[in-house]
Each structure stands twice: as C-alpha cells, then as structure tokens.
Amino acid sequence: EIALTQSPGTLSLSPGERATLSCRANQSITSSYLAWYQQIPGQAPRLLIYSASSRATGVPDRFSGSGSGTDFTLTISRLEPEDTAVFFCQHYGTSVLTFGGGTKVEIK
Amino acid sequence: QVQLQESGPGLVKPSETLSLTCTISGGSFSSYYWTWIRQSPGKGLEWIGYVYHSGSTNYNPSFRSRVTISVDTSKNQFSLTLNSVTAADTAVYYCARVRRREMDYWGQGALVTVSS
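YS: structure for the whole thing
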C-alpha cells in the first residue's frame, strides 16, 4: 500500500519568496498518478497539478510540479499573500486513492 | 461549468446511518468516476470510495464493511451511505469528480456531526 509523507509540516515565508514542498512515497509510483491540491481555509481543495507536472486549468504559472519515482516537489516560485493554504499531494493507485498529510504554507 | 452540491442531514446519532447525496450540474455524468472524500476537523483528507456512472464501485478498505456509494443517472446524482457511525465519523464530506487519476471538480463540502 502506497503511503505519502509530506514535508515540512508548516512553511512560513515572506511574499515573493520561493516555497518548496515535498511529497515522498514509500515505494516508487508512476508520475502520471501524482497530483497536488491547494486548500484555502474554509474551502474545498482545488486541483493545482496533475501527472506530477501538468498545471490544471487556470492555475498561475508560479505553481510548478516535478519529480519521479518516490520524490515529488511542488514549487511556488514567488509567494503571494493569497497562497496561504494547506497543500496536499495525492496518488491514484490500484483502485485506491491516497493523500499526503499536507503542508501548511503561511505568509509572513 | 461543472458544479457539485452535497446535501443531507448535518446531524446523525451514534450507531445510525449517515446519508449524503451529491448533485451534479453543468456537465456530463457519464464517462467519469465520482468520489466521496472526508476531512475530520483539523485533519487531512481521507478517501472513502468511488462509483462509475455504470454503478460499479470501489471502496477504501477502511470503510468497506459499512459504506455504500450508488448512482442515480436519471437525476445526475450519486449518494453515500455510511452505517454504524461514531463520533470519529464527524467530518466535512466532499463529493468530487475523478477526471483520470485526480479530482478536478469538488463540492463545497457538507459538515456532518455525529452526536446524540
């Protein structure tokens, strides 16, 4: 069974800085099956990245995804105040969906 | 624009059955999987199960013994039934569309509290 571990738990950065979020799987997974979501407090999650590196419709290009095998990264190149949220990675396995525990991004 | 809306009781008594319905508008119901995901207060996301428009299902093993997800294509709806609930089932329940291997449209979420 695939387990996803996200780090760090919380990231506190200033506007304009670069945020690097990690999602690590306990075994190698297919990149096509890895997605990232943003959840702003009080809202439903929003799809940001699918297939590890493809941006969903309407997602600003400051969000990018990369990685393969067991290590995947979500990068926010220039943080903006509205990026305050929790970010989750998700894997679609053999008929099972798994989420990471989330990384909270705080803007100073 | 595809929209999903959860509906159902916000309060359920312990040992009873939780029932929620998700209504889809603005898009095709066919050719997609539809899923339920929940989030306990202050916690992460937990996948419950999904249903295809044909009615075939797959469930998280953690819920398999007490969950049923069904579809009503005539109403563009799918439903969640969770039996024998406890306080641990208190959560915000989201319905979502599975596009290929990711959820591209989500409902706003429905808070269900299990309490006597």
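YS: worth flagging: Residues 35 and 50 of chain A are 4 Å apart (CA to CA).
IM: good catch. Also Strands of chain A lie at 4-7, 10-13, 19-29, 34-39, 46-50, 54-55, 63-76, 85-92, 97-99, 103-107.
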